Amino acid sequence: MTPVVGRKATGLVAATFTPLTPEGEINLSEIRPYIDYLLEQQGVKSIFVNGTTGEGMSLTVEERKLLAEEWCNKGKNKLEQVIVHVGCMSLKDSQELARHAAEIGADGISVISPSFFKPATADALRMFLQEVAAAAPAMPFYYYHIPAVTGVNLRSRDVLEGIENQIPSFHGLKFSGSDLMDFGQCVSYCPSHWSLLYGIDEQLLGALAMGANGAVGSTYNYLGSSVNRLMSAFDKGDLPKARTIQFQMQDILCYAIKLGFDLAVNKQLMSEVSGLALGPPRLPLLPCPHPKALSIAQRLQQILGEQ
Amino acid sequence: MTPVVGRKATGLVAATFTPLTPEGEINLSEIRPYIDYLLEQQGVKSIFVNGTTGEGMSLTVEERKLLAEEWCNKGKNKLEQVIVHVGCMSLKDSQELARHAAEIGADGISVISPSFFKPATADALRMFLQEVAAAAPAMPFYYYHIPAVTGVNLRSRDVLEGIENQIPSFHGLKFSGSDLMDFGQCVSYCPSHWSLLYGIDEQLLGALAMGANGAVGSTYNYLGSSVNRLMSAFDKGDLPKARTIQFQMQDILCYAIKLGFDLAVNKQLMSEVSGLALGPPRLPLLPCPHPKALSIAQRLQQILGEQ
Amino acid sequence: MTPVVGRKATGLVAATFTPLTPEGEINLSEIRPYIDYLLEQQGVKSIFVNGTTGEGMSLTVEERKLLAEEWCNKGKNKLEQVIVHVGCMSLKDSQELARHAAEIGADGISVISPSFFKPATADALRMFLQEVAAAAPAMPFYYYHIPAVTGVNLRSRDVLEGIENQIPSFHGLKFSGSDLMDFGQCVSYCPSHWSLLYGIDEQLLGALAMGANGAVGSTYNYLGSSVNRLMSAFDKGDLPKARTIQFQMQDILCYAIKLGFDLAVNKQLMSEVSGLALGPPRLPLLPCPHPKALSIAQRLQQILGEQ
Amino acid sequence: MTPVVGRKATGLVAATFTPLTPEGEINLSEIRPYIDYLLEQQGVKSIFVNGTTGEGMSLTVEERKLLAEEWCNKGKNKLEQVIVHVGCMSLKDSQELARHAAEIGADGISVISPSFFKPATADALRMFLQEVAAAAPAMPFYYYHIPAVTGVNLRSRDVLEGIENQIPSFHGLKFSGSDLMDFGQCVSYCPSHWSLLYGIDEQLLGALAMGANGAVGSTYNYLGSSVNRLMSAFDKGDLPKARTIQFQMQDILCYAIKLGFDLAVNKQLMSEVSGLALGPPRLPLLPCPHPKALSIAQRLQQILGEQ
Description:
Four copies of one chain form a homotetramer.
Chain A: E1 11-15, H1 31-42, E2 46-49, H2 61-75, E3 81-85, H3 91-103, E4 108-112, H4 122-133, E5 141-145, H5 147-150, H6 156-160, H7 163-166, E6 170-175, H8 180-189, E7 195-198, H9 204-210, E8 214-217, H10 220-235, H11 239-259, H12 263-274, H13 290-306
Parallel strand pairs in A: 1-2, 1-8, 2-3, 3-4, 4-5, 5-6, 6-7, 7-8
Helix pairs in contact in A: 2-3, 3-4, 10-11, 11-13, 12-13
């Protein structure tokens, strides 16, 4: 089997929030303006949908299909990449979503480790990933590593070991961990057609130094424009400027963290900054009080205005 | 609304494994002999299906329905209680399973905390539970607390606070934690029609002293007969005898733990002891090597034969 | 070498606070009235000094010697047992304190696992304990297990394995963990001259059912009288009464926990209840605001008055 | 009070191992050749003594004094900086060591958070540090942050808040954590006369990008020469070369980790590589089997020879 030929994901990838109506149902009508906002206001050309930021695990399989389809349809000829997260607790559900992503013309699929039952070894995890990938063998496949959320502390480098033999469509990694040795070991191992996308936005600069090809994260929904300048400065070797922007991002996040920052607040913050109507999160997350998100949005504007 | 009238779950409740074919598909034909085995060989009269032991989270919604239906049908007029676990990462999936459990005549439903997105407070968790319970308001409802698996460390006592106002069908707790202060606080809070079922089999005796009404666990599949004697000894005030049986159970488990004990091993052990064909676990769990389960089964027979 | 013959520690053992002056120096003059208070007001006849409750790790070796000496001197012919905790991060310091405890006529010594550098295996920990015990071979020796504080999660049962060969003076265990399987396995392993003392006060009843010989804890400083009645009820087989008292203790602690309960608050609470002047804790602990301890003391009186 | 004027620590700082005799006593005679080795073979000009690598917490106060004195004496006119770690579980012991470090002419002192009793807030920790610093007010003072070892997860940025008001001699940070947002926030906060030294050797490159002034670590004992080239490449903007060296270091460490890597192995590895006789570690650490360290040393030579 020849490797899947797919464009390599680079640059910034926004992990999109899932628009819900005030009643908590998925709101497909907000997807077109969301894509336009990312392209026009943030300069972000790729998206990662139905992932952690998108509350994928709180959605039904049917809802995830409807959303993925809308993101792909509305992003066609506009976005560079639409990567659909198809990870579920159940392998069978993941396989169904993988097949569906292939049918709707997604640019890639990504899978997080199951976390209720946790794979005991890198081998077990790789077998799980392999079974999902095999359901959509032509889809570029990205493993999604986020140990703080899943509690699965297997080193990514161990998961990558020989993975191209088991998953010919393997294309890269969304690495949302702070262990930059593990990340560096992935960089030094990976062939040139893989993408190593870093996922902890507030320490992106460290990962770029270690060799990241790009970044996936929730803050690029509303800070994409700033972080595009960070990446551009880094590419030109202007570390002081890159640091200045990174520190601004950190200042914004630290302000948010002191107020209490979780996915619900993050989602409401995006609504405040973008003007989109993303709606509430779904239970077990509780809606963010409006003034809290507003306060963070104001601080964001203030800090970015200072630059 | 008047409280749901349901029989109170007491005594031992086996958390059943899910029979799979060698190919990993659900195997409904093994359910009838499974129920007979529990009744005839172990003296266990109630079951908890599609829970952690049953790999519920690795199954699709459709599979869970088929299984729940078969357990209810085959258990009718034989078992005292069939409690169906309907917890999912997605509230909507849980609601669908709750409605289904009501339709098929289950004796109760139980819900674990969602664990990918974790409720931040006891209030948030209670709201999630309420939304599920409201989908099947006539079903006796049990909250399932298992912090070591979910990573949700909210105290059960806090979750119970005022829960009868939000969930009139609330009926009790499956408490699978080692914090006996929290458990004791639940005991002292609970009205007489609730059941407080303890879920860490190897320290049941401590929970009985603290006031447990019964127990739900995986080991009761193959140690139910022994533990029924433990409970009977405890009820008669014969602590030395109860301890002897508890220590035997612990000896068996410690032997298993030294060999490497997880749900896959546990499932294979049940096949060895019972003669049922429960099949492999589903990924991300890997099948247990046959000799390992056999060795544990032999040790089990040896220890119980010593009594 | 013949085993050390020592009286077996049973019943309640108060883990004493260390009296400090308002300036933070050790206050030996408060020790005599402290002992009298325990005997006369709480009916507690044994003590465990310089342990976790006693802020042993925050004291210098010299201070620990002075304190141990005073506790032994003032307790002579009054107390049944004075057990001196001699655990330190440095083996040499522990050995010096062990020798000193023998010189001053302590009834036993106890050692916690070092926790900055953690023993990797039960063997390594047993070797550390052996080296301390060898410095005072005639002192009854108790291993002190408290994984939540030390982060050392080695199972006690594994530490006990063959320990009498390495430590002929071994006499028992202070088990401050919630894993009652591990505790039960210690009970079933231990010869009759060992003491298995349980150390999580709020779930003592569970450990008594599992076979505890007694209990060491900080709350026995001010709740000893109540818990003596709990133990007496348990001994008579009156579980409902034992539970009632256990639940009262839990109510008090839960009230304290909601207000914020740590060692500093605990110490101030003891001053409030007993009238002793125990002074502040030492840094890195901060003194407890007076109203907080007072509020807890009032709740304590109220709950115990309800009985 | 005017700020302490001290040279700013930059570049590589070796966290030294403590030489012990085969019998486990401190071995002062190995210190002179150790310093010469660092200077001549590794190009490392500053040291951090009695810290984690130096098993400081396993030593007595007296031993730590003797060692600190010898390091200062033998390093005089040779080394740029001798920073003495004076952190202890007991504030009084730390104060005594701080005074002693001042007497013997150390270039700075550093304090780790106490970890048996943990400070509950950044304020409590800052007060502890202040009390130590006040005992040696003319000594440049470095806070040592290493949450994976201490279990103290207070953010360094919060500890630094206003610290110059409480500790006029404050001079910087040894940051041994993987949270580069916290590290970045320290960088953006710190005045130019502070040093921000990074302490997780295997991800140094990420921290340099974020603004680290230098690095303190154990691997610089035997990889100092390589990492000096890494830092030089980074300073010249040659990221590919810096990455190559960082990845080599990671390859060595990953090889070691697969064999089982702890402080005992690390110490023996240094003996193998340097030819120094550093002796065994002290209990609770167990000596490393010779072949294991030899195997790692050979892999190290092989990887570095490949460059």
